[in-house]
Specification:
It is a single chain. By secondary structure, the protein is mainly alpha-helical. Strands 1-2 form a two-stranded antiparallel sheet. Helices cover 46% and strands 3% of the residues. A hairpin with a 2-residue loop joins strand 1 and strand 2. The radius of gyration is 24 Å and the shape is extended.
């Protein structure tokens, strides 16, 4: 059993689905996380290397300070692979030349459009988990109550918040909203 940040993850679970045990990580986020850490979709927790477990724990402990992985260009549909007898140094030189020409084209394009090239935002940078996410939700509900909005009043009265029917089916909301989440 792998223990990461106070959450026990079973060895027999697939890593992608085991990550959903963390409060705040759904299947989509778990899939992105596995892709970033190079964990195969079908890999079980017991098959993870110590390096992958350490990388996973360090990323989950502070996702905002983690290094954004480099983006590699994808091959186009007309791509022809180089011959097998070409040396690695020649391949790296060709790749560097292609990369430099692409960067030059981007800069020329940016000069004409007067827009600086920007990197795509990293969706995992703002990831909040466990107690931090619970605290944020509590603060949002407290803010709604403090400003006296309709949503805040519904929370205060322990009633459904999102317009559900209360004539017959409000039992679940009445149970769940008993907690003072402010």
């Amino acid at each position: 059993m792998v223990h990461i940040l106070g959450v026990n993850l079973r060895d027999s679970h697939v890593a992608r689905f085991a990550l959903t045990k963390f409060y705040g990580i759904g299947q989509h986020t778990a899939h992105r996380l596995c892709a970033r850490l190079q964990i195969h979709d079908k890999c079980k927790m017991k098959d993870l290397s110590p390096y992958q477990i350490t990388a996973l724990a360090s990323f989950l402990s502070s996702p905002g300070t983690s290094i954004t992985p480099p983006r590699y260009p994808l091959a186009t549909s007309d791509y022809i692979p180089p011959p097998a007898n070409k040396s690695t140094q020649d391949l790296q030189g060709d790749f560097a030349a292609q990369k430099a020409s692409l960067e030059e084209k981007k800069l020329k394009r940016a000069r004409f459009t007067h827009v600086a090239p920007k990197a795509a935002p990293d969706p995992l940078k703002d990831l909040k988990l466990e107690s931090e996410l619970r605290r944020m939700i509590r603060e949002n509900i407290g803010h709604q109550r403090m400003i006296g909005s309709y949503v805040g009043r519904r929370h205060a009265m322990h009633l459904p918040v999102r317009g559900q029917n209360t004539q017959s089916n409000a039992k679940t909301a009445k149970k769940l909203n008993q907690l003072d989440r402010y």
